[in-house]
Amino acid sequence: MPNYVDSPEYRYFVNKAKALTNIDLENYKPWQIQRRLTFIMEQAGTADYMEYADILASDEAKLTQFVNWVTINVSEFYRDTNKFRELREIILPPLLERNRRLKIWSAGCSNGAEPYTTALILEDMTPGVNHEIIGTDLDSRILKTAREARYLERDVKNVPKHLFQRFFTQDGETYVLSDEIKKRVNLKKHDLLKDIYDSDFDLILCRNVVIYFTNEAKDNIYSRFWASLKDGGVLFVGGAESILNAKELGFKVLAPFFYAKVPDTGGLDVRKAS
Ligand SMILES: C[S@@+](CC[C@H](N)C(=O)[O-])C[C@H]1O[C@@H](n2cnc3c(N)ncnc32)[C@H](O)[C@@H]1O
Questions:
Q1: Which of 2, 146, 154, 204 has its CA 20 to 30 A from that of 188?
Q2: Cβ(123)–Cβ(92) under 8 Å?
Q3: Neighbours of 234 (CB within 10 A)
Q4: Ligand 1 centre and the CA of 165: distance in Å?
């Protein structure tokens, strides 16, 4: 494969993309960007980086599509650190009082940073307890990355020092998560829009996934999460994803971005869909 990264056409594209979107493609692994760009450029009807850059400069919709596509798998450990602190300090203790062993689903888990963060927090709070943590994503390629559990410094920068020292090993420029934490997370391919949902969860994390979905699709997903949670179970959503109709969907707001299932409330029939 030619080294496209150093080609003048690609340099032109990188500079233009940064000027237009503030996204610096230098921060992304070249092979990941390449596979995404190939696909999205095909959709825009070109295979030429310079032409694609010019298309982005003149077509707002294509520019938005480009941003969404590039950032779609972005994740990191303890993403929104404060929210994970609240998860640990406010949300998990009462759940653990009710059940010693929790069943947790990270839906749209990308490279695994989110379910592994949850596993790290629980290992710290309840050492040795084998909680059931499931991580799912639509994208089987990103699940492969999640299984490898090899991260860059920017992905792990928010991991508390004592956990970082204990559970990560440096290998060149990457940091590899220990098998001890990896084996606590069961990674599977799953499409939130099409597949059947498992049930009896104490906690569901679905963060920065539904952001580009229609309101109808979001309501459908949130209603199905409601049905998949135990009574009193908690849904944890992303920092730009407040559920405005939470009450109607049968949730009580515990704290911003944390919603508890209130049994026998809410009213969308759609939640009964499998
Ligand atoms: C921006 S990442 C969010 C990762 C992580 N939850 C976080 O907040 O850091 C969004 C992930 O959602 C996944 N995704 C998008 N549509 C999906 C769907 N219909 N079903 C399951 N996963 C989906 C993407 O493949 C991507 O890995």
A1: 154
A2: no
A3: 25
A4: 28
Q: Which of 16, 23, 21 is nearest to 54 (CA)?
A: 16
Max CA-CA distance within the chain?
Answer: 61
Query: Is any ligand 1 atom within 6 A of the Cβ of residue 80?
Result: no
Domain ranges of the chain: 8-71, 81-273
pLDDT tens digits, residue range 244-273? Answer: 999 999 999 999 999 999 987 654 444 443
> Which residues contact residue 161 at a Cβ distance below 8 angstroms, ignoring those fewer than 6 apart?
none
Cα–Cα distance between 12 and 219 in angstroms, integer?
A: 42
What is the per-residue pLDDT across 217-230, written as a single tens digit (0 to 9) for each? Answer: 899 999 999 999 99
124 lines ligand 1 (CB under 6 A): no
The CATH topology of domain 81-273 is Rossmann fold (3.40.50)
CA of 8 to the centre of ligand 1 (A): 33
Residues sharing a CB contact under 8 Å with residue 238, sequence separation 6 or more, in sequence order: 80, 206, 207, 208, 209, 211, 257
* 131 CB near ligand 1 (under 6 Å): no
Hey, whose CA ends up nearest to atom 10 of ligand 1? 209
Q: Which residue's CA is the nearest one to ligand 1's atom 3?
A: 208
